[in-house]
Amino acid sequence: MTGPTTRPRPVFRLSLLALASAFLLHLAMGARHLPLPAIWQALTAYDPTNFEHRILWDLRLPRAIYAALAGSALAVG
């Protein structure tokens, strides 16, 4: 006798999509709005003289990573 069939793949994909969207939204929003092309450029071709790149790498990216780690720890707990 088998139990009800579950489909974890669509739920998992939807969860990953929501996580990626929230992560990018967290990187874009702030006192100074950063457009998505600027975020992509800062992640792929970092220029330390560009103020937007410094905002992303020094302030927003570490905070977003810590938030994702804290959220995953709360989910496991």
Supply the key terms.
single chain, about 80 residues, mainly alpha, 3 helices, elongated
Structure notes:
The chain has 3 helices and no strands. It has helices at residues 8-28, 36-44, 51-76. The protein is elongated.
- Strand composition percent: under 5%
- Assembly state here? single chain
Any idea what the radius of gyration is?
17 Å
Query: Which geometry do the CA atoms define?
Result: elongated
Say how many strands there are: 0
Structural class: mainly alpha
* Mean of pLDDT: 90
Question: What profile does the largest beta sheet have?
Answer: none
Report the uncertain regions.
none
Order of helices and strands: HHH
Quote the distance from N terminus to C terminus.
Answer: 32 Å
Number of contiguous helices: 3
The level of helicity is over 70%
Question: What's this model, at a glance?
Answer:
The chain is an all-alpha fold and 77 residues long.
Describe the secondary structure blueprint for this structure.
Elements: H1 8-28, H2 36-44, H3 51-76
